[in-house]
Specification:
Structural class: alpha/beta
CATH architecture of the largest domain: Alpha-Beta Barrel
Radius of gyration: 21 Å
CATH class of the largest domain: Alpha Beta
CATH superfamily of the largest domain: Metal-dependent hydrolases
GO cellular component, one term: cytoplasm
Oligomer: single chain
GO molecular function: allantoinase activity; dihydroorotase activity; metal ion binding
CATH topology of the largest domain: TIM Barrel
Cofactor: Zn(2+)
Distance between the termini: 17 Å
Number of domains: 2
Strand content: 15-25%
Keywords: Hydrolase, Metal-binding, Pyrimidine biosynthesis
Largest sheet: 9 strands, mixed
Helix content: 25-40%
InterPro entries: DHOase (IPR004722), DHOase/Allantoinase_Hydrolase (IPR050138), DHOase_cat (IPR024403), Dihydroorotase_CS (IPR002195), Metal-dep_hydrolase_composite (IPR011059), Metal_Hydrolase (IPR032466)
Length: about 450
């Protein structure tokens, strides 16, 4: 990847990778089912030595393409798709490298089929200045197994008091801004942020963690039947819905783009649905845990199930699935949030919020959405590849159709392979997955960034 100081325009940014795991002769993927925004077909994919797609079609003539010496990967029975894009990843670096580093997090991402991730800014120090943006970008270029993009904070220190220097960060390629972990509470400040963002020289998106703290303060799980049974203070659905309502109104007022992070309630999904019907510039995401788990999991008092926003009701889970099915929810984002065992295994009311997500997201989508017929495979991949790439402002590089000349950012996965989640086998430095022992279908075989395998036969290449 280029030096960020020399490439201020994210729209023309290229992706360079260490070619030590590849050969100079390209690759041939034989017999896979190619799924992208242009269609669903069985075809071979030839990858040129320069990291672009050389050809797509049946029974490709490798010699005729100048790829006679290219290694051949038999991907019969597998799906070949544009690499996945996660727009909500916590890499913890800088500041909490004992839980995750850019290297370990990007390795987990590659193993999960991701070729690009957007790092959240709630690090120590906060990513709220050009200097910290450069630091994370440099670490991503040096150690990342995928394209590590950086989001910036909306406010200085994520304290909700003063706007961050968004223009300086945008000049370095930052295209998403969020105070993720806490929402911007001040209505006037959020209006100013939206007006400021819409006047920048490049398009950016403000992403909101939707939580009215006056309603959520002191809560540790969803407020409802189970919080009452367990005696755990709850967070009402209205804490999320009121902020979604406010920011829809501000999007209407300012004309600026707003992205709603990790929607978890039926009411929030319906508000976004109505806003989209009115043509407002809003997008949204949901996490795998919010379409697979409910607040009943907390009955065990296991803090692995503590997350923010909290796990909600079965009706909310059904609403999130419906929102993904009808396009109200644009993206599936992992909200990958690693924590060391030392801090995560504290009593429930003292434990931090967050779950791992990068290595299980695709399989959960296949198992919980595609197999029951809620989404088609194309819809799932749209929500995990090209649609999040659009939101992140990197759709000129990632999520592109697999066609001649496109960058070979690809994932190859077997949608039928079953595997059991074992926290000890995950690449993350942390082990706080709520899916331990769960059998899923859908396993990544290969991940390629610029035609270079970052994962080959299910193994990370460095």
């Amino acid at each position: 990847m280029p030096d960020p100081d020399r490439e201020p325009n994210n729209r023309s940014r290229k992706v360079d990778v260490d070619n030590s795991t590849s050969t100079s002769s390209g690759w041939i993927l034989r017999g896979g089912r190619v799924v992208d925004r242009s269609g669903d077909r069985v075809a071979d994919v030839a990858i040129a030595a320069d990291g672009t797609v050389a050809a797509v079609g049946l029974d490709l003539d490798a010699a005729g393409l100048g790829l006679a010496d290219a290694p051949v990967l038999d991907v019969t029975g597998c799906i070949v798709a544009p690499g996945l894009v996660d727009i909500h990843t916590h890499l913890r670096e800088p500041g909490r490298e004992e839980a995750e580093t850019i290297e370990s997090g990007s390795r987990a991402a590659a193993l999960g089929g991701f070729t690009a991730i957007v790092a959240m800014p709630n690090t120590e120090p906060t990513i709220d200045s050009a200097a910290v943006v450069r630091q994370v970008q440099s670490a991503g270029m040096a150690a990342g197994l995928c394209d590590v993009r950086v989001s910036g904070a909306i406010t200085v220190g994520r304290e909700g008091k003063a706007l961050s220097p968004m223009a300086e960060m945008a000049d370095l390629g930052v295209r998403m801004f969020t105070d993720d972990g806490c929402g911007v509470q001040d209505d006037r400040l959020m209006r100013r942020a939206l007006e400021y963002s819409s006047g920048l020289s490049v398009p950016v998106t403000l992403a909101q963690h939707c939580e009215v703290e006056a309603l959520s303060e002191g809560g540790h799980m969803h407020e409802g039947e189970w919080s009452s049974r367990l005696g755990i203070p709850g967070i009402p659905a209205e804490a999320e819905e009121l902020m979604v309502f406010r920011d829809i109104a501000l999007a209407r007022l300012t004309g600026a783009r707003v992205h709603f992070q990790h929607l978890s309630t039926a009411g929030a999904v319906e508000l976004v649905r109505q806003a989209k019907a009115r043509g407002l510039p809003v997008t949204s995401e949901a996490t795998p845990h919010h379409f697979t788990l409910t607040h009943a999991e907390v009955a065990s008092y296991d803090p692995v199930f503590k997350v923010n926003p909290p796990l909600r009701t079965a009706d909310d889970v059904a609403a999130v699935k419906a929102g993904l099915a009808d396009g109200t929810i644009d993206a599936i984002a992992t909200d990958h949030a690693p924590h060391t065992a030392e801090v995560k295994e504290a009593p429930f009311d003292h434990a931090p919020c967050g779950m791992l997500g990068l290595e299980t997201a695709l399989a959960l989508g296949v198992t919980e959405l595609v197999e029951p017929g809620i989404l088609t495979m194309t819809q799932l991949l749209a929500a995990m590849s090209w649609q999040p790439a659009e939101i992140a402002g990197i759709a000129d590089i990632h999520g592109l159709p697999i066609e001649t000349g496109s960058p070979a950012h690809l994932v190859v996965f077997d949608p039928t392979e079953e595997w059991t989640v074992d926290p000890s086998e995950l690449a993350s430095l942390s082990a706080n997955t709520p899916y331990a022992g769960r059998t899923l279908r859908g396993k990544v075989r290969h991940t390629m960034l610029c035609g270079v395998p970052t994962v080959l036969d299910g193994k990370a290449q460095r």
